[in-house]
Amino acid sequence: MKSLKNQRGQALVEFAIILPILLMLVMGILQFGMMLNSYLSIENASREGARAGVIGSSDVEIENLIIAASPSLDSNDLTVTVTPNEASRKSGDTLTVKVTYNYKLIVPIISSLFNNLIVLNGQTSMRVE
To answer: Looking at residues 74-91, what average pLDDT do you find?
Structure first.
């Protein structure tokens, strides 16, 4: 009976040692999943902006479309670059739409280990029709 009580205490100590590592691993997986979701959103938004640009949309329309295509992202942290600009765009040129997003880490432990800000880039190039 005495050895059974000692084993319960040993299991509690082992759990207390492994719990912080387990929690950090789970938080890291969650943080990575949210960051991957943001990256996929800006990739999709850049593709939608390039599609609109090659059929004749203006740079302002492209930027508004990109913001509308990524509703889960903070539009203040989005930067849209369209090359070439609408005045010099002609048929046959390559239109490049680059979307940059400043992703802020939200898990406190991970943000203290890394820089709190990660820059995500999405870029799409298409031929102007």
So the answer is: 92
